Amino acid sequence: MGAVARWLTGPGPADLRWIRVEEPSAAAGCRSGALAMAERLGFGETRADELAVAVTEAASNLVKHARAGAMMLRAEPGGAVPGIEMVTVDAGPGITDVPAAARDGTSTAGTLGIGLGAIRRAADFCAVFSLPGRGTALAARFLAQRGDPGAGGWAGLIRPIGDEIECGDGYIAHRTDRGTTAMLCDGLGHGPLAARASREAIAALREAPDDEPAALLRKVHARLARTRGGAVAIASVGPKSVTFAGLGNVAGWILSGSERQGMISVPGIAGHQARTFRQYSYELPPGAAVVLHSDGLSSRWNAPDLPGLAGQDPLVIAATLLREAGVHRDDAGILVLRP
Fold this sequence. Notes:
Distance between the termini: 21 Å
Shape: globular
Oligomer: single chain
Largest sheet: 6 strands, antiparallel
Number of domains: 2
Number of helices: 7
């Protein structure tokens, strides 16, 4: 039998909302945004109500107990069962004991623990990673019909600059039982023209997902010649190793335990400037995660400051690093992969 393929792609503008959650009125905006997505995806009344309760609880927690809170709502219409992902991030104060905080009737005043039990009951998947003094990342998935949300072996996040609708960063991943090939593209600049460059790069991988990273990078470079170009990172992840090819100001990391190892990207701009296309192979320690991100995240994040992060769900890893290292003067994109 042949390998069964799966795809992961970033959301289009109609399927993504980032909402600042710093004032009490923001909770109503989060709830209405979630309900609008649920209606479009065919959620029944009961399931939509459960989603609304969870989103309202999460937003209210951010307003009451956190600093610099934000919520992402993402519609996922393409799966066997449509779903909605919710991610919240904040800059503290954090939760000292997450399992205890999630139990009904127990919380610590001034923390995000209140309401976690209600969110977990409503969600098909829910995970929280919190470090006292640094902040919290919460990720939850809600299917239109309750069920198994699938293995969380990969996840990506994009966030447009400011209040823009289109994000110039984009990603795609292709998985078979042989491994995963993935790409993150940071279109030069931001806005619709940057987004077009990322879409062209994604189309190149769709056409040849089994190519090695250096060969794929060469094809992406040719395809982006009629766009403004971009920085590109491509990784082929197997059970025990990763092969990486990067062009431009993109970052590739192997996150394992409290350590990270950088992967080599060569200077250039895909579509315009490229002297060479090289790929490098690296061993993957057990339990490691591969992280690709644009320069919308600073590379100065420090793995020892984030104990336990490497073992989290990829969506939680992505949300935490976006919270830790994301800059608000640029589009941001991050993709996290497990073997």
